[in-house]
Design a protein that fits this description.
The complex is a heterodimer of chains A (360) and B (344). Chain A is an all-alpha fold. Chain A has a single domain, classed as ABC transporter involved in vitamin B12 uptake, BtuC (Orthogonal Bundle). Chain A has helices at residues 2-7, 21-53, 61-69, 76-110, 122-135, 142-165, 173-196, 199-209, 218-237, 239-245, 249-254, 259-281, 287-299, 303-328, 336-354. Chain B has a single domain, classed as Orthogonal Bundle (ABC transporter involved in vitamin B12 uptake, BtuC). In chain B, helix 3 packs antiparallel against helix 10 (243-265). Classes of the chains: A mainly alpha (360), B mainly alpha (344).
Chain lengths: 360, 344
C-alpha cells in the first residue's frame, strides 16, 4: 500500500527505485503518513465530541458518552444530545467530507491551486437550481430539490470549466477564478430576481444561503448521506487518476490514462459531493479551497494521501468552525458558512500573495 | 517612404477620431430618446412631445409636477449611474488588461453592499445615510484589496484574485446580516442589492451629479497616461511615465466612480462589465472612454424603461433587467476573450 502510494510521484525517477534504501525510505514515509492520519482521526473524534457537548447548553463529556451508549428518554440532556446535537454533528461530518474531497478533486482535475466549489460557481449553480425548484416549481422537501442541486452543480461546473479552459494556456488560475466569479454573479442575480417576487421563499432562502448545519432533519440526512458516500468513494478511487493527470495531459496519456474519461469520472464525483453538500447545508465556501493545501503540506503531492487527509481534515475545520460559531455569538450563533469565510479568506489572500500560481 | 507612412498614420488617426466622434453623437442621441421615453412612461403618461417643454417648466401643470419632481430625477440618476459605471468599467478593464475585471466581480461593490445592508437592516436608516454608508463601504473594500494585493508593485492578476477572495468573505457578512433582520427589512435590502432607481429624488442625485462634473474631466485628462500604461509597464516607464503613481490615480478615479454609482443605485449588475467592450467594438479602438460612459447611460436608461414596463403591476428593480441582458453577453465575452488570449 505504502510502496504503491509512492510510485506515481516517483515515476519520473525511473524504475531503479524499487529496491534498496529508497524503497525503505518510502516505507518509512508511508507509515509516517499513516501515523499522522491516525493522529488527525483522533483530533476529529475530539472535535466530534466537542460539537456534541458545546452549545447554548453545555453538556459534560461524560453525559455525552452516556447518551450515546446508554440513552434514556427521560433525561433532558440525553434528548438534546440525541435529537439535536448528533444530527447536527453528522451533518457537519458529511458536509465536511464532501467539501474537502470535492476541493481536492477539483484542484487535481483543473491543476489549479485556487479551485474551490464556492469560488468556481458550483455552489452557486446548486443554489440557483434549488431556488428555482422551490420558488417556480413548488418543490417542498430536500429529496425533491437534491436533484435540482445536482443538475445546477453539474451545469455550472461544466460552464465555468469550459469557459475558463478555452484558449491559450488552458485553464489558468486567473481565467478560471474570473469565469467562476462571473458565473456566480450572474446566477446570484437570477436567484435574487426570483426571490424578489416571492417573500416566503426569500425567508427560507436567506437562512439557507449563509451555509448552516443547524436544525437538519434526520430524514434529510439519511436521504442525502448515500449520495455523499458514493461521491466520496468515487473521489477516493480517483486518486491514482489525479496523480497521472498531475503530470500533464500528454504524459498522462502516454502512461496509458484515458484523460477525458478520467476527468469525467472525477467531475462526476465533484457534482455528487457538492450537490449533496449544498442541498444539505447551503453554499459553504473556502473549506474545499484550504483543506487540500494543508493536506498537501503534510503529505506531499500524492493525491491518494491528499484525498485521505482532506477527508479527515475538512470535517475538523467544518465542525470546529461550527463550534466556534456557537461559542462566539452567545446566546445566538454564527452560521458555519460565515466562520469558514472569515477563516478561509485570509488563507486565500495569503495563497495568492505567496507564489506563482501555476504550480499544480 | 517615411512621408507616406506618416500620411497613412495621420489619415488612420483622423478617421479613427471621426468614427469615435460620430459614434458618440449617435449614442448621445439614443440616450436622449431613451431619456425622454423614461420621463414619458408610467402610471401618468406624459406624451413624448410634451416632455421637453415640461422639463423647462412649460405646459400642463400636472405634467410639470410629475416630470419635474418624480421622473426627471430618476432619468438623470439613470444617466449618471450608467455613465459612472461605464467609465469605471473601462478604467478597470484597461488597467487590469482583462475584459472581465469589472468592479462587480473584484470585490468593490461587495463592500458597498455590506455597508448598505448594515444601514438598512441594523440601523433602519434610509436615504442619505445609506448613500454615505455604501460610498464608504466601497472605498474601504477597495483600499483593503489594493493593500492586500500590493507586493513590490501591483500586478493585475493579484488585484483580481485578491478582489475575488475579499468579495467572497464580505458577501458572507452580508448574508449573515440578512439572517438577523426582519423579513420586511430583508426585502428592501434585497431590492437595494439588485440595484434600483425607484424613488430617486433631487436630493439623492445632487452629490452624484456634482462629483461627476469633477470626475469625468479628470478621467479624460488622465486618458493619455492610461494609453501609455496599455503599452506595458516597462514601455510606459521608458516613455517617461511614473507608472505606479499614474496607476494609483487611475485606480482612485475608477473606485470613486464605482462607489458613487453604487451608492446612488445599488450594484446594478453587468453595466460596468458590458459598457466598455460594447463601446470598443462600436468605435473600433482599444480605448473609448466617452463612448463607454454613453453606452453605460444607454444601458441603464433602457433597462430601467424595460423594468418599469415589463410587468403590468410592479416596477422591477433595474438590476434584474441588466442581469438578464448581461448574462448571454457575458458568456460570449468569456468564451471569446479567452480564445484570443486576453483573458488572464
Amino acid at each position: 500500500m505504502s510502496l504503491a502510494a509512492d510510485a506515481a510521484p516517483r515515476a519520473h525517477e525511473g524504475a531503479s527505485g524499487s529496491t534498496g534504501p529508497e524503497a525503505r525510505g518510502a516505507v518509512r514515509r508511508g507509515s509516517w503518513r499513516l501515523l499522522w492520519l491516525l493522529v488527525c482521526l483522533g483530533v476529529l473524534v475530539g472535535v466530534v465530541l466537542a460539537s456534541i457537548a458545546i452549545g447554548s447548553r453545555q453538556i459534560p463529556v461524560g453525559v455525552v458518552i452516556d447518551a450515546l451508549t446508554d440513552p434514556s428518554t427521560s433525561d433532558d440532556e440525553h434528548v438534546v444530545v440525541r435529537s439535536l446535537r448528533v444530527p447536527r454533528t453528522i451533518a457537519g461530518l458529511l458536509v465536511g467530507v464532501a467539501l474537502g474531497l470535492a476541493g481536492a478533486v477539483m484542484q487535481g482535475v483543473t491543476r489549479n491551486p485556487l479551485a474551490d466549489p464556492g469560488l468556481l460557481g458550483v455552489s452557486a449553480g446548486a443554489s440557483f437550481a434549488v431556488v428555482f425548484g422551490i420558488s417556480i416549481l413548488g418543490v417542498g422537501n430536500a429529496l425533491g430539490y437534491i436533484w435540482f442541486a445536482f443538475v445546477g452543480a453539474a451545469v455550472a461546473s461544466v460552464v465555468v470549466y469550459t469557459l475558463g479552459a478555452i484558449g491559450r494556456g488552458g485553464a489558468t488560475p486567473v481565467k478560471l477564478a474570473l469565469a467562476g466569479a462571473a458565473v456566480t454573479s450572474f446566477l446570484l442575480s437570477m436567484t435574487t430576481a426570483m426571490l424578489l417576487m416571492d417573500q416566503s421563499t426569500l425567508d427560507e432562502y436567506r437562512f439557507w444561503a449563509v451555509g448552516s448545519i443547524a436544525g437538519r432533519d434526520r430524514d434529510v440526512l439519511t436521504q442525502l448521506a448515500p449520495f455523499i458516500v458514493v461521491g466520496a468513494l468515487m473521489a477516493l478511487a480517483a486518486g491514482p487518476v489525479l496523480n497521472s493527470l498531475a503530470l500533464g495531459d500528454d504524459v498522462a496519456r502516454s502512461l496509458g490514462s484515458r484523460v477525458g474519461l478520467a476527468r469525467a469520472f472525477a467531475a462526476a464525483s465533484v457534482v455528487l459531493l457538492v450537490g449533496a453538500a449544498t442541498a444539505l447545508a447551503g453554499p459553504i465556501g473556502f473549506v474545499g479551497l484550504t483543506i487540500p493545501h494543508v493536506a498537501r503540506a503534510i503529505t506531499g503531492p500524492d493525491y491518494r494521501w491528499v484525498l485521505a487527509y482532506s477527508m479527515v481534515l475538512a470535517p475538523i475545520l467544518l465542525l470546529g468552525s461550527d463550534v466556534i460559531g456557537r461559542v462566539v455569538a452567545r446566546p445566538g450563533e454564527l452560521q458555519v458558512g460565515i466562520v469558514t469565510a472569515v477563516v478561509g479568506a485570509p488563507f486565500f489572500v495569503m495563497l495568492v500573495r505567496r507564489r506563482k500560481l501555476a504550480e499544480l | 517612404m517615411t512621408a507616406l507612412a506618416v500620411q497613412t498614420v495621420r489619415r488612420a488617426r483622423v478617421t479613427g477620431r471621426a468614427r469615435g466622434l460620430s459614434v458618440s453623437v449617435v449614442l448621445a442621441a439614443v440616450a436622449f430618446v431613451l431619456f425622454c421615453l423614461s420621463i414619458s412612461i408610467g402610471d401618468f403618461r406624459v406624451p413624448l412631445a410634451d416632455v421637453v417643454p415640461a422639463i423647462f417648466g412649460a405646459g400642463d401643470p400636472a405634467a410639470q409636477f410629475i416630470v419635474g419632481e418624480l421622473r426627471l430625477p430618476r432619468a438623470l440618476a439613470a444617466v449618471l449611474v450608467g455613465a459612472a459605471f461605464g467609465l469605471s468599467g473601462a478604467l478597470f478593464q484597461t488597467l487590469a488588461r482583462n475584459p472581465l475585471a469589472s468592479p462587480d466581480f473584484i470585490g468593490i461593490t461587495s463592500g458597498a453592499s455590506l455597508a448598505a445592508v448594515f444601514g438598512i437592516v441594523v440601523l433602519h436608516a434610509s436615504g442619505n445615510t445609506i448613500v454615505v454608508a455604501a460610498f464608504l463601504g466601497a472605498l474601504t473594500s477597495a483600499a483593503a484589496i489594493y493593500v492586500l494585493a500590493w507586493k513590490r508593485g501591483l500586478s493585475s492578476y493579484r488585484l483580481v484574485l485578491v478582489g475575488i477572495g475579499v468579495a467572497a468573505a464580505v458577501d458572507a457578512g452580508t448574508a449573515y446580516l440578512l439572517t438577523k433582520a426582519r423579513i420586511y427589512d430583508v426585502q428592501s435590502a434585497v431590492v437595494w442589492l439588485t440595484g434600483s432607481l425607484n424613488g430617486r429624488t433631487w436630493e439623492d442625485i445632487r452629490p452624484l451629479a456634482l462629483a461627476m462634473v469633477v470626475l469625468v474631466p479628470a478621467t479624460l485628462l488622465l486618458a493619455p497616461s492610461l494609453r501609455l500604461l496599455m503599452l506595458g509597464d516597462e514601455t510606459a516607464a521608458g516613455l517617461g511615465l511614473r507608472v505606479e503613481r499614474s496607476r494609483l490615480l487611475l485606480v482612485l478615479l475608477a473606485v470613486t466612480l464605482t462607489a458613487l454609482a453604487t451608492a446612488a443605485a445599488g450594484p446594478v449588475e453587468f453595466v460596468a462589465l458590458l459598457a466598455a467592450p460594447i463601446a470598443r467594438r462600436l468605435v473600433g479602438s482599444p480605448l473609448a472612454l466617452v463612448p463607454a460612459a454613453l453606452v453605460g447611460a444607454v444601458l441603464v436608461l433602457g433597462a430601467d424603461v424595460l423594468a418599469r414596463e415589463a410587468l403590468p403591476t410592479t416596477a422591477l428593480p433595474v438590476g434584474v433587467v441588466t442581469g438578464i441582458i448581461g448574462a448571454p453577453y457575458l458568456l460570449w465575452l468569456l468564451a471569446r476573450s479567452n480564445r484570443i488570449g486576453t483573458g488572464g
